[in-house]
Amino acid sequence: RFQGDQLLPYTHVLLQNLLFSFSSGTQSVTVENFLRVLTGRLPPSTPRSKRLLSDDRSNILIYLTGHGGNGFLKFQDSEEISNVELADAFEQMWQKRRYNELLFIIDTCQGSFGNLFKYNLNIYFFTLFVFQHQPDLAIGVHLMDRYTFYLLEFLEDIHPASKANMNDLFKVCPKSQCVSTPGHRTDLFQRDPASVLITDFFGSVRKVEITTETVNLTDPIKFIHTITKLHPHPDPPLLLFLLHPPSSPLLPVSPQKPKQKDWHPPDGFILGLWTLILMVFFQTYGVKHLKHIF
Amino acid sequence: MAASLTLLVIVAVTIRAALYRSSLAEPIAERVEVVSPITAWKRVIEGLALLDLGVSPYSGDVFHETPLIIYLFHFLVDYAEITFMLADVIAAVALYMAVKDFNKQVFRKQKFALEANRYPADCLELIRSPTEMHYIPLKVAMFYLLNPFTILSCVAKSTCGLNNAVLALFVLTTIKGNVLLSAIFLCLATYQSIYPLTLCAPAMLYLMQHQYIPVNPRRASFWWFVVQYLFMYLGSLFVIVCLSFFLLGSWDYLPSVYGFILSVPDLTPNIGLFWYFFAEMFEHFRLFFLCVFQINVFFYTIPLCIKLKDHPVFLMFMQLAVISIFKSYPTVGDTALYLAFLPVWSHLHRFLRNIFLVSCVLLACSALFPVLWHLWIYAGSANSNFYYAITLLFNVAQILLVSDYFYAYLRREHHLTYGLYLKKKDGSEATLVLK
């Protein structure tokens, strides 16, 4: 359960996996898989639920959290993805028309490596210098950083008809509360941030079950064992993809291969052919010829 | 006779339907002796599927049939088996009616010749009687429908069956004397594979004799008829080619169909002579040998026409045989068509010299084809030389068969003119040699 879930420190509220959660298994969250999902270069046996079936009307939200450094992000603490690779992936997606607008939130240390992107279009960047939030007394390590906490708090108030726009999102975590420097980059985006609704990216209507029950962790030894197996540090890298085609939330997007349509012979051809056949027929099978043939 | 024909048709259709339902249909459809890259049903399906995806079916080296076949099977692809069975039945019935009419004409000519006392006294045993000729049409239909080659070709859903049907209809309309329909069916057959072009000559000869135009190159009526026939033939060919252009909107079927037949790029082994030669040939000489092989098909027309001027139906038989043996991608279906004509010349049996050898070789080769294919491709203990040896032997047997019938026919004609028991000048028995 700790894979792919965010734990709020005090109330142990579980936020269910959102629409397209890729972190279904820690071993599948690798740089290669991430880039493959983004660019669509997956083996043909990949099921549809693991593909990013976006087209040029889809808005994509990419939220990366974990550890990072100057110019790179860590995946599962064993791999790195650099800003250049991400930029290339986004450029490929743009060339293949796999997104309309992209909101990229980097919730890591030194997440401002996004400033180095030069040539993508329609990408919104949110970067952040992460600072740890309150520690959780039950687990003993930091579960979440402040930005994530305030972002979650903000997002919980958003409903599908909300008119909040991007500027509100920028104001979620001011320096006084977050003790870190959030940054955003909007020069690669074609619209004015004040006119972009949050729900363009976050508005996928998805059943979220919020439970107030406490989770009884009966076996402490196994519990810690699970934690250390996952990650020595608080946040397992979490990738959330929210796909929201602007028209309707849960409609599957059209596949990339050409549509099968039945070919029909052109009408002129049919007309010409049957006219000829009839002409020949009547030329030979005039009544007086019939008795010669049969 | 109609009743027995119906019975025969029912039996043939039953056999084919039974084979369609059995598990043999799939392996037969993949045998290279039965299907060629032009006639394979798999390729027709592939072409239709490509068309449904919005791509031209002639892109890529998959589909080599004509656009009219696309049009036909666009609507009939679910009824393919019935279509091919119907094609076989149409071919058989057309051959039946053609041979019946031909027999009537043969008998009438013979009667006139008898009354004019043109036959020497001792060759009366060579004269044919209506009783012996009565069952020949039925035998022709039976030879076509129950021939294992035809059955295999039908079960494999090879478009050769359609070609055979068109050729049979051409033979029927020629023998009936209908110039326009003969030209049109020949045009359809040529449109599908180029080689029936050589059947123009026997058709023209026959129709001229039917209309009592003397076959004399010095007379104007001869050339006028030739011009008429060629105009109808080439005109309908032109119309059909243009119509095919309108079907798909492009001319790229021309290199795919005719370029493919003439330039033989696909060297899949079959029962023909082209594949082995062109597989082992240097590129430098390829064009030369291509021309040689293709001219070989068309080359026998003129000499045969000159020799068999008065016997155009036999000329048609010879021409069909030559096409089946020497075409670029022959299949057993092509062989089956001219084998169906053999009962028509059954009165020649006393002059055939190699018939035992030929029949043994043909049977043995037909049995050895799958064996050596298996040894070559699957077991790996033989190589292509083995398979080509059988191919060569099969073709040699076919050529021997055809030349044997040619010899027998000419010998009978000679006897009818000069008498059966020929004596040399000194009175001893003479032997006839075909030179």
From TrEMBL, chain A:
GO MF annotation list: GPI-anchor transamidase activity
Listed transmembrane segments: 268-287
Gene3D superfamilies: 3.40.50.1460
Keyword annotations from UniProtKB, A to Z: GPI-anchor biosynthesis, Membrane, Signal, Transmembrane, Transmembrane helix
Alphabetical GO biological process terms: attachment of GPI anchor to protein; GPI anchor biosynthetic process; proteolysis
InterPro entries the UniProt entry points to: GPI_transamidase, Peptidase_C13
A GO CC term assigned to this protein in UniProt: GPI-anchor transamidase complex
Subunit architecture: Heteropentamer. Part of the GPI-anchor transamidase complex, consisting of PIGK, PIGT, PIGS, PIGU and GAA1. Interacts with GPAA1. Interacts with PIGT; this interaction, via a disulfide link, stabilizes the expression of GAA1 and PIGK and links them to PIGS.
The family this protein is said to belong to: Belongs to the peptidase C13 family.
Protein name listed in UniProt: GPI-anchor transamidase
UniProtKB/TrEMBL annotation, chain B:
Keywords: Endoplasmic reticulum, GPI-anchor biosynthesis, Membrane, Signal, Transmembrane, Transmembrane helix
Signal sequence region: 1-25
Pathway the protein acts in: Glycolipid biosynthesis; glycosylphosphatidylinositol-anchor biosynthesis
GO BP: any one term: GPI anchor biosynthetic process
Membrane topology: Multi-pass membrane protein
Keyword Ligase included in the entry's annotation: no
Top-level taxonomic group: Eukaryota
TM helices/strands, residue ranges: 68-99, 143-173, 229-251, 257-278, 285-302, 314-342, 354-379, 385-407
GO CC annotation: GPI-anchor transamidase complex
UniProt subcellular location: Endoplasmic reticulum membrane
Family: Belongs to the PIGU family.
Protein name in the entry: Phosphatidylinositol glycan anchor biosynthesis, class U
Lineage, opening ranks: Eukaryota, Metazoa, Chordata, Craniata, Vertebrata
